[in-house]
Specification:
With 408 residues, the chain is mainly alpha-helical. The chain contains 20 helices and no strands.
Length: 408
Amino acid sequence: MFGLPLVRHRPSPSTVIAVAQLLGTSLWFSANSAAQDLARAWHIGNGDIGWLTSAVQAGFIAGTLFMALAGMADRFRASRIFAISTIAGAFFNACFAWFSHGLPDAMLYRFLVGVSLAGIYPLGMKLIVSWEPRRTGMALAQLVAMLTLGTALPHLLRQLGAGLPWQTVILASSVLALSGGGLIYALGEGPHLPQARARARAGAGGSGAAVLSAFKARPFRAAAWGYFGHMWELYAFWTVVPVLVSRTTIAGLVPGWGVSGMSFAVIAAGALGCIAGGMLTRRLDSAPVALGALSISGTCGAIFAWSWPVLPPLALAMLMLLWGAAVVADSPQFSALSARSCPPDLVGSALAIQNAIGFAITVVSISLCTDLLARMGLDAVWLLVPGPIVGLAGYLLTIRGDRPAAQA
C-alpha cells in the first residue's frame, strides 16, 4: 500500500512436518490420559491400562512390518500415506471413545490406532530425510521432540479438561490428528531421495529380503542395537509415568498440577532433551550424543529404583524430569545414524522395519513392567535399566573395528 514489499514468512518444511507429527501422534497415549476414569468405569487396574498401550504397540508393529516388507513406504507418496493414516487413526480413536464398553473392544480399537500410527511416525521420518538430508540429526530431533509432546499432550488435555468426560479428551486427539494430516498433504514430498521418487513413479517396491539387507551394514546394525536398547526403556517408562507420579510424593509438589500435570511435565521434558541433543550434533556426531543420552537415562532409572523411598520430593521431581529429558533424546540420533547407513531407495522401509522390531520389544517391556508394578510396587523400575546397558554394549561391540564407516 505504501510502496513497501509485503514479506510473508513461511515455516520451513521440517517445522511443518514436526508440528504435524505433534498433532498426529497425540493419538498414541490418548487412552492413558483417561486411565483413572477407565479404571473406575470398567473396574480395571494399572496392568490392564498397560494392555491398552500394548495393543497400540502391537498394531504399530503389524503396520510397520506390512509397510516395510511390502515396500509401501518407498512405493507411494509419503505425504499421502501420512494423511490417509491420520484419517484412519482419528476414526478408530473416535470409535474407542464412542463404542468401547470394556477392555476387549477397547483393545481392538487401540490396535487399529496403532496400525494407523505406522503411517505417521516412520513416514514423518522419511519426509524429514526428503527435505533435510544434510541436517538429519537436528531435523529428526525436532521431529521426535514433537512426537514426545504429542505423547504428553493427552495428559495436558486431561488436566485442562478435568471436569469433562474422558471421551471428550479422546475426541480432541482425533481432531488434532486430522489437522496434522492436512498439513502434510498440503506440504508434499521434498526434492531429495530421487531414487525413491523414481520407484514410486514406476510402482516398484523393495522386497522383504532387500529391506533386511540393510542389516548387513555394520553401522546400521550398531545403530539398531542402540535403538532397540533404548526402546526397551522408553515406552515402558512413558506408560508408567502416571503410576510413578501417583505413588510418590511429587504429585502435589506444584499446586493444581496433580498426576496429569506432573506426568505431562515429565514426558514433555523429552522434547527439550531432543532439541538439546539436536543442537549438540552441530558440534558432535550423532553417535556420541545418542550414547550419552542413553547413559544418562539408564543412570536415572537406576538412581530412581535405588533411592525413590528416601529422596525428598524436589530431588525426586528433578530426577524424573532429567530422566524424561534423556530417555528419548537418543531416539532421533539413532534414527539419523540408521538413515544415513542404508541405501537411499530403502530409507522408508529400513526405518519401518527397525521401528517394527523396536516396538515389538516395547510390548514385552510394557507388559512386564506394568505387571511387576502391580505386584511389587515401584521397585519394579529396575526392569527398565537393562535396556540402556544392552543398547550401549551392543552399539560399541558392533561398531568396533569399523569406526571410519560409522562416521562416513
